[in-house]
Specification:
Layout (H helix, E strand, L loop, with lengths): L6 E4 L3 H17 L13 H11 L5 H18 L5 E5 L7 H10 L5 E6 L2 H14 L4 E6 L15 E5 L9 H14 L5 E7 L4 H7 L6 H17 L8 E8 L4 E8 L3 E3 L8 E3 L4 E8 L3 H11 L1 E8 L5 E8 L2
Parallel strand pairs: 1-4, 2-3, 2-5, 3-4, 5-6
Antiparallel strand pairs: 6-13, 7-8, 8-11, 9-10, 12-13
Helix pairs in contact: 2-8, 3-4, 6-9
Bound molecules: S-adenosyl-L-homocysteine and N,N-dimethyl-L-histidine.
């Protein structure tokens, strides 16, 4: 069968992306304490570093989620979707397990990966179009907060949001996101959500602070992206990587801690960002869940959980849900 190049819809032209980056970063850097949205990790280098993280012994989520997909992809494929949409698709690596099972079930016609990282999306979509010549690969470069409508393709859709990326959204944004997602889905469409589960804090902290320092480099990459995009003059080496378990919020917080007093120029802000030695810049939250808690959150947003697949060691779960109206 002839290979057809993937269609790539760019909803996030570079200029608009830079403007959004600049606005968001200026506001969050001016806040006290200052923080950054985790979306800024993911330029080409950040995506590569994330890919390395997923192969680390300490970072269990990818490994365990993959094993869940190996075990349950056929059951998931049995829902009979013709379109698989993936939010924050990255390299689409684990997704091939779902694609294989859905092609095996004879229903899948189209795969729609959506990601903010254009280079990563183009590479993944191109590779998948070659691997699956009969599959219509339709990539979307976009933001899953703003461009969900771009996923309206297909009659019977399965939306996969894997890797527990939903945990990187603060609770209010998470709630809004689930409501927005529900509003673009029709009766009969499904959501497959990967969630990292609450567990002992020591293994959580190690997963986010590996001894080889890959996560530390991933964390500091956000500063490199800001320097290039916004014209800030962060010295990434002036920051120490920190991962903290917040037991009350049930999330891991990644931070960059100033090693010494410093001033950082932030173009567009009247005053420089002043950080004292030991002061933190929050770069990511990674919330951990229970299946019961997620079931309740999904219900509130308009979804009914029909199946949940929990790993043997209860580290990670896949939750399959449909809309109820
Ligand atoms: N789903 C993959 C990748 C997870 S990494 C996995 O499970 O391994 C998170 C991915 O989400 C990255 O590829 C990043 O570029 C993307 N991402 C982060 N914020 C996003 C946003 N607001 N909109 C779309 N993609 C986003
Ligand atoms: C993409 N996201 C789900 C990862 C996580 O585990 O929160 C990002 C990450 N941060 C540090 N390591 C991996």
């Amino acid at each position: 069968m002839a290979v057809v190049d993937p269609v790539i819809e760019v909803h996030l032209p570079a200029a608009e992306w830079r403007a959004a980056l600049a606005d968001a970063a200026r506001r969050s850097l001016a806040a006290r304490p200052p923080w950054l949205e985790p979306v800024w990790f993911y330029d080409e280098r950040g995506s590569e570093l994330f890919d390395r993280i997923t192969g680390l012994a300490e970072y269990y989520p990818t490994r365990v989620e993959r094993a869940l997909l190996v075990a349950h992809a056929e059951e998931i494929a049995a829902i009979g979707a013709d379109t698989l949409i993936e939010l924050g698709s990255g390299t689409s690596d684990k997704t091939t397990l779902l694609i294989d099972a859905m092609l095996g079930a004879g229903t899948l016609r189209r795969y729609v990966p959506l990601d903010v990282s254009e280079e990563t999306l183009r590479a993944a979509a191109g590779a998948l179009a070659h691997r699956y010549p009969g599959l219509d690969v339709h990539g979307v470069v976009g933001d899953f907060h703003r461009h969900l409508a771009a996923t309206r393709l297909g009659d019977r859709r399965l939306v996969a949001f894997l890797g527990s990326t939903i945990g990187n959204l603060p609770p209010v944004a998470r709630r809004r996101f689930l409501f927005d997602l529900d509003s673009v889905l029709d009766h009969g469409d499904r959501l497959l959500l990967g969630i990292d589960l609450v567990k002992d804090p020591a293994s959580l902290v190690t997963a986010y602070d590996d001894p080889g320092g890959v996560t530390a480099e991933f964390n500091r990459n956000a500063l490199r992206v800001l320097n290039r995009s916004l014209g800030t003059d962060f010295d990434p080496d002036a920051f120490e990587h920190v991962a903290i378990w917040d037991a009350r919020q049930r999330w891991i917080e990644m931070r960059l801690r100033a090693r010494w007093d410093q001033e950082v120029i932030v173009p567009g802000l009247e005053a420089p960002l002043r950080l004292r030695a030991g002061e933190d810049l929050r770069t990511e939250i990674s919330a951990k869940f229970t299946v019961e808690g997620v079931t309740a959150e999904l219900w509130e947003a308009g979804f009914v959980v029909e199946r949940s697949f929990v790993s043997e060691g209860e580290e990670f779960a896949l939750v399959l849900a449909h809309t109820y109206c």
